[in-house]
Amino acid sequence: MSISIGIHDLSFATSEFVLPHTALAEHNGTDIGKYHVGIGQRSMSVPAADEDIVTMAATAAAPIVARHSKDRIRTVVFATESSIDQAKAGGVYVHSLIGLPSACRVVELKQACYGATAALQFAIGLVRRDPAQQVLVIASDVSKYELDSPGEATQGAAAVAMLVGADPALVRIEEPSGLFTADVMDFWRPNYRDTALVDGQESISAYLQAVEGAWKDYAQQDGRSLEEFAAFVYHQPFTKMAYKAHRHLLEFCGHDADRDALERALGSTTAYNTVVGNSYTASVYLGLAALLDRADDLTGRPVAFLSYGSGSVAEFFAGTVVAGYREHLRTEENREAIARRKPVDYAGYRALHERSLPADGGDHSTPAQTTGPYRLAGISGHKRVYEAR
Ligand code: CAA
């Protein structure tokens, strides 16, 4: 009999500041209905000057190593598409900040928003090889589009940390997976830019094509039938996208895609993403956190995941929620991570958006803004300097 492997613990963190969409709408004269209803977003997380993907990742991962022994973690896989260095893995800073043992491999992984799902699957492979080991999977991203562009309303920032191991306490990840890759230019970020480029409508079509492709492969691999799933956790660049995607899947499979069917499948998965914004690699796992925190008892129920990364790669897979999972949730901490954010006004957000770290190799400290446990204290000789409180 094959061993049960999956997500043993899940914790997330987001930024110090939050911009309500009402402030953005007031600035650019957009009807707020377009944001609240049209794309399904209410606010976006905005990182402080001294926050980045590393500080958010360490903040997400620290409660996991506080609850579990560090000794079984021999691998850290850090998934991101807003990387801070072309060579050094962001996870190496996190490894140091949270005090993991030196007998550990750390690597960074990229394929747009899909990267964390690759990390999860690779982690499962490592645990299958040696079930005594656990893998820390971290997804951390800051989503940044040009000011006054259509994508601006879908920005956000968050990190999710997941401990992957045998006999998981939360979700057992199943085989098979449905896979899909297509070479498309729907969303990308060349190395010389800090904001993403996107063809908005093309990106929506590419996502829908990927849902269909990944589902077809899942069905061919003898996966479960659609009716078996208690809920569907989609990548949510904006929460309305999950509704578009699920409607597409239901119709493709010849089912009615009425309001009730969509709400039943997705209703509990959007609560965090609607107020955090796009967190790229973390988004689908923020959807899972919301589902586990908010849905009625899911014990023993299969849940579907659709992970999409522009460019594009998608994976459709299933997980079964484990008996007793509620005792291991971090529902209060999750609510607090969102509630503790401080509202920033439009001018304050714009100033943060326009900031970039000096690239002159000198000594520069960053303004002390975050009240979180880790901060980017500055940059010195081209080296980022982090500190823990
Ligand atoms: N009240 C209610 N609804 C309104 C409204 C109002 N007053 N005004 C407009 N709307 C609706 C529109 O009808 C539309 O709904 P439908 O899509 O259901 O027709 C919706 O609001 C959005 O309106 P537009 O299409 O006119 O909006 P836009 O052109 O400004 O851009 C966007 C929308 C393309 C999503 C843009 O925000 C964008 O480019 N975002 C970034 C790209 C993205 O997130 N793509 C998603 C797929 S790619 C992916 O998933 C990877 C990733 O993470 C980036």
From TrEMBL:
Keyword Membrane: no
Boundaries of every Hydroxymethylglutaryl-coenzyme A synthase N-terminal domain copy: 5-167
Record-linked InterPro entries: HMG_CoA_synt_C_dom, HMG_CoA_synth_N, HMG_CoA_synthase_prok, Thiolase-like
EC code: 2.3.3.10
GO biological process: acetyl-CoA metabolic process
Domain Hydroxymethylglutaryl-coenzyme A synthase C-terminal: 177-250, 267-324
Residues bound to (3S)-3-hydroxy-3-methylglutaryl-CoA: D31, Y145, K244, N278
Active site (record annotation): E81 (proton donor/acceptor), C113 (acyl-thioester intermediate), H235 (proton donor/acceptor)
Region (Disordered): 356-375
Record keywords: Acyltransferase, Transferase
Enzyme class: transferase
A molecular-function term among this protein's GO annotations: hydroxymethylglutaryl-CoA synthase activity
Family: Belongs to the thiolase-like superfamily. HMG-CoA synthase family.
NCBIfam families named among the record's database cross-references: HMG-CoA-S_prok
PANTHER family, per the entry: 3-HYDROXY-3-METHYLGLUTARYL COENZYME A SYNTHASE, HYDROXYMETHYLGLUTARYL-COA SYNTHASE
Name of the protein in its database record: Hydroxymethylglutaryl-CoA synthase
